[in-house]
């Protein structure tokens, strides 16, 4: 299955150590971490296969996972 790019938003109350552990878990599952977000929300971009997204989305640390797409203004 082909990999896609996603934005993973983590729970606002996730501490830095939990975030780092989760990122290592994502990498262990074959994910390639891109940009880390920490200003407006805690999270990061990642490239991984869609089946892994289903597994990760059940983690209590995860607030949401969205496919990374180009956005356009009207």
Automatic annotation (TrEMBL):
It holds the Pfam family Inhibitor_I9. InterPro entries: PBI_I9, S8pro/Inhibitor_I9, S8pro/Inhibitor_I9_sf. Residues 6-73 form the Inhibitor I9 domain. GO terms for molecular function: endopeptidase inhibitor activity. Belongs to the protease inhibitor I9 family. This is Subtilisin cleaved region like protein. It comes from Schizosaccharomyces japonicus (strain yFS275 / FY16936).
């Amino acid at each position: 299955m082909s990999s896609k790019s996603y934005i993973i938003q983590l729970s606002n109350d996730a501490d830095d150590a939990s975030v780092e552990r989760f990122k290592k878990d994502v990498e262990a599952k074959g994910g390639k971490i891109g940009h880390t977000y920490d200003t407006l929300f805690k999270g990061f971009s990642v490239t991984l296969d869609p089946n892994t997204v289903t597994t990760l989305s059940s983690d209590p640390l995860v607030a949401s996972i969205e496919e990374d797409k180009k956005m356009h203004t009207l």
